[in-house]
Every structure is written in structure tokens, then in C-alpha cells.
Amino acid sequence: MRVLADVLVVLVAVLHAYFLVLEMFLWTKPPGRKAFGLDAEFAEQTKALAANQGLYNGFLVAGLVWGLLAGGDLRIPVLSFFLVCVVVAGVYGAATVSRRILVVQAVPAALALAAVLVAG
Questions:
Q1: Which pLDDT belongs to residue 87?
Q2: Are the CB atoms for 113 and 8 separated by under 8 Å?
Q3: Mean pLDDT by 10 residues, the chain (120 residues)
Q4: Rounded to whole angstroms, how far apart are CA atoms 29 and 6?
């Protein structure tokens, strides 16, 4: 079960690393605009906000990697904290932006959190 938990946590971390790249570096480029359904003008006007959002995704990635590497008594609390942060962000995003965020962000994190807690 620990291997499954680790795989799910890595999946969540990779997703958020991808979000970081989209938001910080590709927001005004065709791949970023396509991913978020943005026109060029709006993307240009909001690129600083998107970069800030991308940075926060990077912090989530850092926390998940820390939890995976921490081991011992830190592993479960660190992973739980950062996975709960992802779930909360996903639920909020689904409520305020798009329900798709629930599936893309919150569900994988919730599954990873459940696996981490069961694996102990």
C-alpha cells in the first residue's frame, strides 16, 4: 500500500509541477492559453497573477517532495498537510472557477491522502 500511496503522491506532485510551468512560463504562449481557454489579450493582462499562482503550485510540489523524502515521524503529517492543501484548493477552484478542477486537482489529492493514511 505504501508504494501505491507514493505513486499517487508523485502523480499529484507532477500535476502541480505541470501547473507551475503552465502558469509561470506558458501562460501567454499557445499551450498555456489553450489549457486555460484564454485569449492573448487577457493572458497578457493576467500573466503576473498567473505566475504568482504558479509559484504557489511550486510550494505544493516542494511540500509533497519533502513529505516523500522525510520518512519517519514526519512523513504522514507533512504529506497529509500538503495533500489537504491541494484538496481544499481543488474544492475552492471547483466552486469558484470550474467543476473540472475538482476532477483534475482535488480527486487525485484525496485519493493520495487516503492511500497515505491507510498505508500509515
A1: 98
A2: no
A3: 97 98 98 95 97 97 97 94 98 95 97 96
A4: 33
Residue 7 CB burial class (10 angstroms; 0-12, 13-18, ≥19): exposed
Specify whether the CB–CB gap between 118 and 5 falls below 8 A.
yes
- Integer angstrom CA distances of residue 43 from 52, 83, 87, 92, 109: 14, 29, 26, 22, 28
Tally of CB atoms within 10 A around 41: 9
d(CA 82, CA 8) in angstroms, rounded, equals 13
Could you please report the per-residue DSSP string of 35-80? HHT--HHHHHHTHHHHHHHHHHHHHHHHHHHHHHHH-GGGHHHHHH
The pLDDT of residue 35 is 94
- pTM here is 0.93
